[in-house]
Structure formats: C-alpha cells, structure tokens
Amino acid sequence: MKHFSIFHMSVVGAMFAAGTMTTLADDSPRALQENWRDANPSLTSVGPVVGTITALNYDADGRTVNGLFIGATDTMLTFERPVCGGVGSLGKINDSVTYSGSEESFSSGFNSVRVTSYTDGSIKYSHAAPAAPTAYALTAGKITALNYDPRDGAIDGFFFTPTSGAEVFVDIGHVNNTVAELLAGTPPVALSVGGVELPPPLCPKSAAIGVVVASSLKIGETAYPVGGRH
Fold it and tell me: 140 and 122, same structural domain?
C-alpha cells in the first residue's frame, strides 16, 4: 500500500539520495521541492473531475489518512468538513472518483483541492454548511439526572425529560448557589427550560441525545438567567 506524506518529503528525498529507497521511486507521487509552498498560490474552481486514487496521504504521525492523491500528478484532495469514519473511509487506491472544489496550484507542480463534493460509487461527501441551532421555547419537564463539572464538582447541566417530547441534555454552564441548591432538590425539581437546541452532530453516535444550551430556567414562579457554555 502506498504511504505518502507531504510533511516527510525532506526525509524521503534524503533517503533517495542515499540510494536506500530507489525501489519506491515509481510507487510514490513525485517528490516535491523544499520551497513548494508559494506565498500566493493560484486558486481556481475545478470539477466535476473524474480521476483515480493513486496514493493515500497521512497526518504527521502516519496513522490517520488526511488526503487522497489523484492520478499521476501531484494533486491531493483534502476535506474540511468532518468525514464520518475518517478520510480513509472515502475510497481506496485504484478507485475511480468524481470531485469538485477549489484548487490551489503551486509552482512546484503540486495541487491541493479543497473538496466541495465527491463521490466514489455509493460513497458521497458534501461540503454543505452545518445546520444552525434552533430555538427551544420555554418547556416544562423534570430533571432525571444531574451532571457535574469534573474540575470543581459544580452542577453544569442535567438530563431533562419534558412533559411532551424527547429527553435532552441541558447545558447550563456554572450557576449561582441558589439555583444549584434548587436543581439538586429531592425529589427532582419540576422546572421549565428555554434556550437553543444544537443541531445533531455530523457524525452521530448511536442513540445520540439532543443538546439544549439553556438561557433561562423557570423554577416555580421565578425565572433564572443561565448561560450554557457550548
């Protein structure tokens, strides 16, 4: 399997010079010059382009794929949005792919494409903007479990089951002693929560729970301003 990293080109170059890796000369994208990163590379829109994955690029510790090389040229695809399963899940060497994006071209001949859309058979990637938080109107319900800040043991949130609707986790940040004592009451206190609900994560875990960043809590007849930290 090809294992290529832009950041290690100076090391690879030295090994070629010593004659220790001549057998890999045809198995890696063309070595890049030390001054490959221009101060003002040209930027153009490209795509849709059809190409073949010829090598994988890795991060600095060589464990995680962070880019895909396309064709016989020094063209690497990069992905700015989170990729569920990692960039390595988007394709393998010799796969035919179609992509579009913004391409930076350097005088060394290296091209870096910030991908906006990508397909490899049934695998798809889109650089769509993440969803925005939505209003969480003042909602009545009960606390089912408190959450604590591991740094100082202060209450920083709670699991909340509304009178109607799905359970959510409520982020309240740090609150004053009065509110903390009310939240820690036994039996669990009935209250209303208002704020914003965060969009689901781009790569959700199984049975992911909704998250509400609270701006106010109403306990009894009194409203208390709070400030979640998300």
Answer: no
Say what the pTM is. Answer: 0.60
Give the Cα-Cα-Cα angle 184, 186, 191 (nearest 5 degrees).
65
8 A C-beta contact, residue 77 and residue 49: no
Which two structure tokens, joined as six digits, stand for 128? Answer: 């769509």
Q: Is 1 domain-assigned?
A: no
Same-domain status, 41 and 111: yes
Between CA 192 and CA 83 the distance in angstroms is 36
Query: Pick from 81, 96, 126: which residue ends a domain?
Result: 126
Give the DSSP letter string of 34-103. TT-S-SS-EEEEEEEEEEEEEEEEE-TTSSSEEEEEETTTTEEEE--S--TT-GGGG--TT-EEEEEEEE
- Sorting pLDDT into bands at 50, 70 and 90, what band is 215? very high
Q: Answer yes or no: is 230 within a domain.
A: no
110 and 141 inside one domain: no
Q: What are phi and psi of 6, to 5 degrees?
A: -55, -35
pLDDT of residue 22: 38
Whether residue 113 contacts residue 102, with contact meaning beta carbons closer than 8 Å, is answered with yes
Domain with 177 in it: 134-225
Q: Is the pLDDT of residue 165 over 90?
A: no
Domain boundary among 126, 147, 168: 126
Q: Which two tokens stand for residue 4?
A: 């290529």
